């Protein structure tokens, strides 16, 4: 009689692991990467708080993770997380939000948190579409894409979210695809330990909605292999021309800056200053 | 050894694609959810790379390392 | 043995907005987030200094949506939090105010009302947002809202607001207006031990997956983050343990009714009213906020002229003092409603009176200024 061995990450869940995601959705791979990173860091899960937005990625931590979780309104997770972190700076606050949540409705909060360099980790699940609501175009959807709200093809250039994060002042930025799950885990570890605003963008397969857009409907393996083909590490990409980089996904740790003033530290400094006066 | 929770599987096939030694394939029968799930062709060829465990979106695969 | 020495009370000559800030600090506020907006910016400026002096946190956010999100997040981090804005800013906050209600998050929101709608008249006192706390956010919910009429009341009512927010785990509104916010008057500070400050009921230890942290009519304990309590907080319809359920009618019915009853069951503790000269009154004047000062002075004058008129003032606009109005309507013949708008609370007074007394609305001759005594007196004489 075989013994049932628990999944090594089961201890981070409240009950049975039961994601209701579509078959092959990248969410589960990302969830594993986050939890594996935390497991490797050997920090008590109670020290973490997850804030998530509305959209499929919001369901990565909520309601499954066995620690404090705050599932808020669409686009606002970074703003809620800012208040939480300022009030309880000892917490490691991780945000799980999608590309639309982060850069459309939540765009303003995203760029300001980066500018403030507040010690938060944003896990941005970028599936290049609005998945949960049925496949509408997102600020990250490639030009010409035919989605349910761009039946003639998208006429808007997409954001490069990692570049946007860097331009806004984020001090740790990494981008991977779900194909590079192990490297993603390493970057998430670094992001969590980095004192400052960390942005980890993951290009993740949405086989149902985005798969439809690129002719890979319900083909998560196809989408993963496509990521494998198109990923170029930043170290290599630096020496490639714009033409060579067309259609490629630049992955790697794109920004890492230490010793930039971090918001909760600055608040502490202001308190001391205020009392001295 | 690869422990497969067949009823947690949604039949995405990612584990099969990510196995470097191609020892996983779809079952003939269906699980409770109504999809084909992975079965191990030859346990002895498993390199314990843990790809199937790491890439399974539904946490259905566990690699139990053989004690040496 | 009673002490014969009167305690010395600190008094200061303060602007209404500043008095509100000091009231918040007295109440233990340790987090302020806000966005500049006339006529509330003074409290933002003041808190940007004072919060750090009391070991608190101040943040000027990128917009009002971030301000309300910040104070809710901070409340879950365990601190008393507040924001201040005016009508246009509150309009932006409404979605997340609903989240604060549903997640039973204590926090305080000051609205220094201005000429409206839209950009309106930023420096003009107006009572145009009276329904906003109760009906502004989508959905069915109860809220607490107080209407101060002076800097002293800005101070006092802010403490009450924090106390009610903590006691009932709810957002609480303070509905001031541009004049109350900007006028300067003497404010007397209580001594520290003279006022009991409420603290939210906290969950002390993790009670398991099905721990009751919501939907108790007598207020469930709040699982502050970072204490190993594994809080499960969502804006979706949920059960007592926070687990989401958006399909079971019994659960959804419970979620909405218990949430509302948490406030309605404790109306006696929450509702504050002021009644003057009503014992033998034939006519009562209903007014609140700044208008109440004009009305009270007029009623004083009317009484000197022998007119049997009194005044009824709701300090809490929400929950609406329905029973108290019904009782009033059985005592007097006419209730005149005076408010600095085109009749926002008037329909509620009329409904609560249930035809027992005639309820009429005296529209302000000019919106944006106080009623003058003559208009009120003429109306009293007309109906008495």
Describe the protein's architecture and organization.
Chain A has helices spanning 27-41, 77-87, 99-105, 107-116, 161-168, 181-193, 209-213, 220-230, 234-237, 263-276; strands at 48-52, 68-71, 92-98, 121-126, 172-177, 198-203, 231-233, 249-256. Chain A is an alpha/beta fold and 277 residues long. Chain A has a single domain, classed as Thiamin diphosphate (ThDP)-binding fold, Pyr/PP domains (Rossmann fold, 3-Layer(aba) Sandwich). In chain A, helix 1 (27-41) crosses helix 6 (181-193), helix 3 packs across helix 4 (107-116) and helix 4 crosses helix 5. The termini of chain A are far apart. In chain B, strands 1-4 form a two-stranded antiparallel ribbon. Chain B has a two-stranded antiparallel sheet with strand order 2-3. Chain B is globular, with a radius of gyration of 11 Å. Chain C contains 13 helices and 15 strands. Chain C has a seven-stranded mixed beta sheet with strand order 3-2-4-5-7-6-13, sandwiched between helices. The longest helix of chain C is centred in the middle third of the chain and has 18 residues, at 151-168. Chains in contact: A-B, A-C. The A-C interface holds A 14-15, 46-47, 49, 51, 62-63, 66-73, 76, 79-88, 90-91, 108-109, 112, 267, 270-271, 273-275 and C 30-31, 33, 49, 52-53, 55, 57, 59, 61-63, 65-66, 69-79, 81, 95-96, 99, 209, 223, 225-236, 242-244.
As an assembly, this protein is heterotrimer
Q: How much helix is in the residues of chain B?
A: 10-25%
Q: Number of helical runs of chain B?
A: 2
Helix-strand pattern of chain A, N to C?
HEEHEHHEHEHEHHEHEH
Distance from N terminus to C terminus of chain B (CA atoms, Å) equals 13 Å
Q: What are the segments of chain A in which pLDDT stays under 50 over at least 5 consecutive residues?
A: none
Domain module tally of chain A: 1
Contiguous low-pLDDT stretches of chain B (5 residues minimum) are: none
The biggest beta sheet of chain B, please? 2 strands, antiparallel
Shape of chain A: globular
Radius of gyration of chain A: 19 Å
Q: From the 3D structure, determine the CATH topology of chain A.
A: Rossmann fold
Share of β-strand residues of chain A: 15-25%
User: Proportion of β residues of chain B?
Assistant: 25-35%
Classify the helix fraction of chain A into a percent range: 25-40%
CATH superfamily of chain A: Thiamin diphosphate (ThDP)-binding fold, Pyr/PP domains
Largest interface: A-C, 38 and 46 residues
């Amino acid at each position: 009689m075989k013994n049932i061995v628990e999944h090594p990450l089961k201890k981070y869940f409240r009950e049975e692991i039961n994601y209701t995601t579509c078959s092959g959705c990248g969410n589960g791979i990302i969830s594993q990467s986050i939890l594996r990173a935390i497991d490797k860091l050997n920090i008590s899960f109670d020290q973490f708080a997850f804030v998530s937005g509305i959209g499929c990625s919001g369901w990565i931590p909520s309601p499954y993770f066995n620690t404090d979780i705050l599932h808020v309104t669409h686009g606002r997770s970074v703003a809620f997380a800012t208040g939480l972190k300022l009030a309880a700076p000892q917490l490691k606050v991780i945000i799980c939000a999608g590309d639309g949540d982060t850069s459309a409705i939540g765009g303003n909060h995203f760029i300001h948190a980066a500018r403030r360099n507040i010690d938060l980790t944003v896990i941005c699940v970028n599936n290049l579409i609005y998945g949960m609501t049925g496949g509408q175009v997102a600020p990250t959807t490639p030009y010409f894409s035919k989605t349910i709200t761009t039946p003639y093809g998208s006429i808007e250039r997409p954001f490069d979210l990692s570049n946007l994060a860097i331009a806004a002042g984020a001090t740790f930025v990494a981008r991977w695809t779900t194909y590079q799950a192990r490297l993603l885990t390493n970057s998430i570890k670094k992001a969590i330990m980095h004192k400052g605003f960390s942005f980890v963008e993951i290009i993740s397969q949405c086989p149902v909605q985005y798969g439809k857009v690129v002719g890979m409907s319900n083909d998560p393996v196809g989408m993963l292999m496509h990521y494998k083909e198109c990923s170029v590490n930043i170290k290599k990409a630096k020496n490639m021309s714009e033409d060579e980089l067309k259609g490629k996904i630049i992955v790697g740790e794109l920004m890492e800056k230490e010793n930039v003033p971090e918001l909760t530290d600055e608040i502490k400094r202001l308190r001391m200053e205020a009392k001295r006066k | 050894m690869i422990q497969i929770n067949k009823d947690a599987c949604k039949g995405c096939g990612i584990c099969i694609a990510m196995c470097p030694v191609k020892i996983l394939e779809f079952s003939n029968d269906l699980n409770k959810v109504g999809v084909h799930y992975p079965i191990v062709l030859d346990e002895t060829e498993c390199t314990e790379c843990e790809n199937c465990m790491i890439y399974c979106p539904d946490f259905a695969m566990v690699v139990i390392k053989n004690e040496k | 043995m009673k002490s014969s020495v009167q305690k010395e009370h600190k008094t200061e000559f303060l602007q209404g907005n500043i008095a509100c800030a000091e009231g918040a600090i007295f109440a233990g506020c340790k987090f302020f987030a806000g966005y500049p907006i006339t006529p509330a910016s003074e409290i933002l400026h003041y808190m940007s200094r004072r919060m750090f002096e009391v070991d608190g946190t101040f943040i000027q956010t990128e917009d009002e949506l971030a301000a309300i999100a910040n104070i809710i997040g901070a409340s879950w981090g365990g601190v008393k939090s507040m924001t201040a804005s005016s009508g246009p800013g509150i309009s932006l906050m409404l979605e997340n105010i609903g989240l604060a209600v549903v997640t039973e998050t204590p926090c305080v929101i000051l609205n220094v009302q201005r000429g409206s709608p839209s950009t309106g008249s930023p420096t003009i006192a107006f009572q145009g947002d009276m329904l906003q706390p109760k009906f502004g956010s989508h959905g069915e919910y109860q809220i607490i809202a107080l209407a101060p009429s002076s800097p002293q009341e800005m101070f006092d009512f802010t403490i009450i607001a924090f106390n009610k927010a903590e006691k009932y785990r709810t957002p609480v509104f303070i509905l001031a207006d541009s004049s109350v916010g900007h006028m300067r008057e003497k404010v007397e500070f209580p001594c520290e031990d003279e006022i009991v400050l409420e603290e939210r009921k906290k969950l002390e230890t993790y009670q398991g997956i099905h721990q009751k942290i919501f939907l108790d009519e007598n207020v469930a304990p709040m699982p502050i983050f970072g204490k190993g309590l594994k809080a499960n907080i969502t804006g979706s319809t949920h059960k007592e343990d926070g687990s989401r359920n958006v399909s079971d009618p019994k659960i959804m019915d419970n979620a909405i009714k218990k949430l509302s009853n948490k406030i309605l069951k404790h109306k006696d503790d929450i509702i504050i009213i002021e009644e003057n000269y009503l014992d033998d009154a034939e006519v009562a004047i209903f007014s609140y906020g700044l208008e109440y000062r004009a009305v009270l002075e007029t009623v004083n004058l009317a009484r000197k002229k022998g007119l049997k008129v009194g005044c009824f003032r709701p300090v809490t606009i929400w929950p609406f003092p329905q029973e108290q109005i019904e009782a009033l309507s059985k005592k007097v013949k006419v209730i005149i409603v005076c408010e600095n708008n085109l009749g926002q609370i008037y329909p509620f007074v009329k409904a609560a009176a249930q035809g027992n007394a005639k309820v009429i609305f005296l529209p302000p001759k000019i919106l944006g200024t106080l009623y003058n005594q003559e208009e009120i007196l003429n109306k009293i004489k007309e109906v008495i």
